[in-house]
Fold each of these.
Amino acid sequence: MAEHKEEPLVESVMDKISDKLHGGDSSSSSSDSDDEKKGSSSSSAAAMKAKIYRLFGRERPVHSVLGGGKSADLVLWRNKKISGAVLAGATAIWLLFEVMEYHLLTLLCHCLILSLAVLFLWSNASTFINKSPPNIPEVKIPEDVAVNVALSLRYEINRGFATLREIGHGRDLKKFLIIVAGLWLLSVLGSCCNFLTLFYIVFVVLYTVPVLYEKYEDKVDAFGEKAMIELKKYYAIFDEKCLSKIPKGPLKDKKH
C-alpha cells in the first residue's frame, strides 16, 4: 500500500516539474518573439525614415548642410542673443543708410575722425592725469587667410563662368531656363528696390528661413515632395508639346 501511495506523489511532482519547464520554454519563446517584433519594428522604422523625401535630396541634418561650426550655429539661432544682435545690427545699418539716407563714405569718415580724436587726446592726456595710455592692438591680415579667401573666390568665379559657357553652347536646356527665370526675377526685384534694400531682404531671408525649415522640417518636406511631383508633371507636358519639337543639330566634338 505504501508503494501505491508513493507512486502518485512521484507522478505529481514530475508533472509539476514538466509544467514549470514548459512554462519557462513558452516564456523564453515569447520573449524571443517580442525581441523579433521589436527588431522588425525598428528596422521598418529605419526603412520608413530612409524613404522620407527630403528637400533638394538632402541626406544630412540642416546643421551639417550649412557647414557646421559657429556659422551654422549663428544661422540656426543656437544662441539667440548673438543671432538677435546680428539681425538687429543689420537692421540698424539698413535703417541708417536707407531710411535716414546716411551715406557710407560719410559714416566711415565720421567714425574714423571720432575714433582717432579720442585715441589722440587720450594718449596725450595720459601723462597729465597719471593714467596709462590706451593699448592699441596691432591688426594684421594673415597671409594664409587672404590666400584662402582669394582661392575660394577664384574657384567660385571660374565655376560661374564655366556654367555660363555650358549654357551658351546650348547643351542644357533645363539649366538655361532656370538661369533665365532667376535673372528675370532678379531684374524685377532690382526695379522695385535699390541694391541695399535687396541685399537686406536676401540677408533676412537667409537668416530666418533655415531655422524655420529646421523647426517645420517634416511639413515642408511633404509639401516640397508634392510640389516637385507637380513640377515634373508640367515639365513633362511642356517638353512633349514644345521642347521636343525644337530641331537640334548634331554636336560635333572639336579635334585638338
Amino acid sequence: MTDQLIHCKISCLVKQRQIQVSFVFGWFTITSRMPLWTSLANNGQASTLPWLCLGDFNTVRRPVEKSDGNVVTPYMVNDIQECCRLTGLDDLTSTGFYYTWSNHTVWSKLDRAMVNPIWLQTCGNSSATFLPFGKHSDHSPILVKMGVDGEPVSRPFRFFNMWTMYGDFKTIVQDVWTADRQGSRQWAVVKNLKALKSPLKILNRKEFGHISERAKRASLDLEESQ
C-alpha cells in the first residue's frame, strides 16, 4: 500500500481461484504521480495472477480523452502509456459515461478499469460501467462485471485498408454481395456485411498475418538494442 495505491489479493473459496485488484488514486501533478507508475510497473512485471487495476489516475491516457481546457501533450501521457506497455494493462470494454470527470468546463476520462492479459484469458467477457456522477463526487463510479470462466472474449471486427490492395479482394466482396438475401434492401446490406467478416478474417490471416509477426519482432529487436 502507498499513498496512491492499494493492492489486494482476493480469494474465491468456491472456485479456488485468486485475483489481484489494485485501487488507484493518482496525485495531481506529473512528478507526484511518478511513484505510482513505478509501483504499478513493479507489480505488473512480478504478478502471475489475473489483475484488475481501477480508480482515479488523475491523467488521461490519450489526447482524445479530454475535451476543452489545455491541450494534452505527449509529455502528459507518456508515463501512463509506458506503464501500460510494461505491465500489459489495457482498458476493459466499457459502457456508460466516456468522460468520467468534469468541472462543467472541462471534461476528461481520468477514471478507468484496466486488466492484464492473464485476466482476459481467465475471466472472459468482463466489462466496466461508468455510472453518472453522484452527489458527493465529480467522478463517475466504476462498476466492474467479471466474466464467466471459459467464456470467450469477443473482439470487435476491424477493417484494414490494406485488404483492398489484394488482388482477390473485389472477388471476395462480390461473391458475398451477389448472394440471394431475403428481405428488404436494408436488411440485405446488414446480412452481407455480417457475411463478409469471416472471409475477410481468413484473408487477413493468410495474406497479411506475417505483418503482425514482423512488427512484433521489430519491437523486440528495438527493445534489445536500447
Amino acid sequence: MGTGEVSNSGNQNVSNNNETNVILNVYDLTPINNYCYWVGFGIFHSGIEVHGKEYGFGAHDFPISGVFEVEPKSCPDFIFRCTISLGCINMPFSEFRAFIESIASEYHGDTYHLISKNCNHFTDDMAHRLTGKHIPGWVNRLARLGSLCSCLLPESLKLTTVKQLPEYHEMEDGTESLSTATPRNSTEIDDTDQEKHLLSPKDGNLDIAFVKEAQK
C-alpha cells in the first residue's frame, strides 16, 4: 500500500557512520486498524527513524519544541505496525542533530492540530526534506478526510488532549533534550484545548525526550 518498502524488522543503520537509512515507523492507534488497514484507511501515529533514534511530534501547552525522540519502534502506548524504508542519506549525526533542532523550532507543542499539523504531517515534512520523498498517503488519510468533513472524526479524537510540562535534561553527547513532567490537573483545561489531540504517549510517560529547538 503506497510507496516504499514495508517490513516488520531489520536494522536501520549502515556501516558508514555518516550514512543512515531514513525509516518511517507506523503505529496503530486503535485495534480497528486491523480491519481498515487493508482498504487503505486507519488511525495511525508515525515517527521518523534516523541514526538509531525515532523522532515524532506531539502536543503540549507551551510555545517550545513538540518534537520528541524515543527508541525505534517503541513509542509508548502505541501498537507498532510496520516500517517503511524511505531511502538512505549521507549526513553525519552532528549535522542531523542541528537539522532536527532546527525543525523543532517549527513544530512547537502548542501548534499541534489533529487536522492541519499532526505527527504524520511532521514525518512527511521530515521525509521530504531528507530524501525528497513523501510518506505513503494512507498514513495520514484520516486528517485529509477530516479537513473535508470533521464529522468523519471520532469524537474521542477531536476532544482528547494531554497536558505535559517539558523539562530539559543533559544527554550523553552533551546536548540537551526534554522529558515530560507531571501533567496539569484536568480542571485547568479550557475550551480551546478541545481542538488539540496528542498522538503521543500518555500523561507523565518518561520514555520520551523532547528535542530542544535551535536558538535563533
